[in-house]
Design a protein that fits this description.
CATH architecture of the largest domain: 3-Layer(aba) Sandwich
CATH superfamily of the largest domain: Glycogen Phosphorylase B
Shape: globular
Number of strands: 11
Strand content: 5-15%
Strand order of the largest sheet: 2-1-3-4-5-6
CATH class of the largest domain: Alpha Beta
Oligomer: single chain
Structural class: alpha/beta
Largest sheet: 6 strands, parallel
Distance between the termini: 41 Å
Number of domains: 2
Order of helices and strands: EHEHEHEHHEHHEEHEHHEHEHEHHHH
CATH topology of the largest domain: Rossmann fold
């Protein structure tokens, strides 16, 4: 029986969200492949520097749950402990930095961090291409140097209770039947939820939109959608846990983000057998263009999105199900976990050995021992609010 292998996972996420969801699937999947994962929070509840260094020494690989604060800490600790580090890049970095108005100093700092990571894992080719653009703005030759350290591992289409089985959509619908649509996500500028209101007005009166999520644009949604709320066509549910039953109550899920890395909302919807209709941002083209092109709007306008929704609803059930089945097959959880296992195993093999983790030692004089497993502080979640 092979000895266990040890990962230190540096996180700042908690509760709900797409990154938190994928972290849960990664942890549980790697455990089945013989990895022992310890979480270390980099913000709330962070242990002392001494305890962090000790945790890094006990691990064989350090993994940053995203490419900002966890990446800073992972790369620094990996250098101190002489361990390999992996930075997980979720969103399209160039677009995220532009949205945030990041300074040249911040961008330069990020380049330095990523250059020192042993491995960069991107959630999509879209995120990978965006990262390369950021890295090559200062050094055109940087892409070639980074290529051997970059790997695309797409997020899985999985949600507890989904089972890969959908409720068949009736081929013939009555004129009065309600056609429920759904949106899941933060009500923030980059998600552009206000675009959903003119889209809904262009759809038949039988269409209703259920919005699950909260954020700074909730007030604007209520104000701009007063007529739709009064008509019973718009439902603002706020933040709540999303389950398979949530998606399966809808005819389609709708996305209209300015940018995405590889959205779990779309993947969870597909896992439940429900199509996801989206504006044609690069990440959604990557996901849907070949297999489910009818779900992509021709442009980013509300009119184009409304047309794509109608096109998807009118698609023959057998054709729609065949596309969803293929998308589920392309985004299997086991494929995701196996790819991560290969990356992590490869890092150990490149080091030439698979060293046993450092034995737990008592603290030095003047240092108090502190726990480094923050799982209770940062609970995994298979759903999202």
């Amino acid at each position: 029986m092979s000895s266990p292998r040890y990962i230190l996972l540096l996180t700042e996420e908690s509760g709900v969200g797409g990154v938190q969801t994928t972290l849960h699937w990664l942890e549980s999947g790697l455990a089945e492949h013989g990895w022992q994962v310890t979480r270390l929070p980099v913000r709330r509840g962070r242990p002392s520097l001494w305890a962090c260094w000790q945790a890094a020494r006990r691990a064989q690989v350090l993994v940053a749950s995203n490419n900002f604060w966890p990446a800073y800490v992972a790369v620094a600790l990996a250098w101190l402990a002489r361990r390999p580090s992996v930075v997980w890049v979720h969103g399209p970095l160039q677009e995220v930095l532009q949205q945030a108005g990041a300074s040249r100093l911040k961008i330069g700092w990020l380049r330095t961090v990523y250059q020192r990571a042993s491995q960069l894992v991107c959630a999509s080719q879209t995120s990978c291409d965006s990262l390369v653009r950021v890295m090559t703005q200062a050094r055109p030759d940087a892409a070639r140097a980074m290529q051997s350290r970059m790997r695309v591992i797409r997020n899985p289409a999985v949600l507890p209770g989904a089972g890969g089985v959908s409720t068949p959509m009736p081929a013939n619908r009555s004129a009065t039947e309600v056609m429920a649509l759904g949106f899941v996500g933060r009500l923030s500028p980059e998600k552009q939820p206000l675009q959903l209101l003119p889209m809904l007005r262009l759809l038949p009166a039988a269409c209703q939109l259920h919005v699950v999520g909260d954020g700074e644009l909730m007030g604007a949604m209520r104000s701009a959608g007063q007529d739709l709320l009064a008509q019973g066509r718009l439902h603002l549910h706020g933040q709540q846990t999303v389950t398979a039953q949530t998606y399966q109550a809808w005819r389609a899920t709708v996305l209209c983000s300015r940018y995405e890395g590889y959205p779990m909302t779309a993947l969870e919807s597909l896992a439940c057998g429900v199509p996801c209709v989206s504006t044609p941002i690069p990440a959604m083209q990557e996901m849907l263009a070949t297999t489910a092109p009818l779900c992509l709007a021709h442009d980013e306008s509300p009119a184009a999105l409304a047309h794509a929704v109608q096109r998807s609803l009118a698609q023959a059930p057998a054709e729609r199900q065949a596309a969803i089945d293929l998308l589920q097959q392309q985004h299997r959880l086991e494929t995701f976990v196996q790819a991560w296992d290969q990356v992590l195993t490869g890092l150990l093999q490149r080091r030439g050995t698979q060293p046993k983790p450092e034995l737990r030692q008592g603290p030095r004089q003047g240092h108090a021992a502190e726990p480094t497993d923050a799982s209770s502080e940062d609970p995994p979640s298979g759903g999202r609010a």
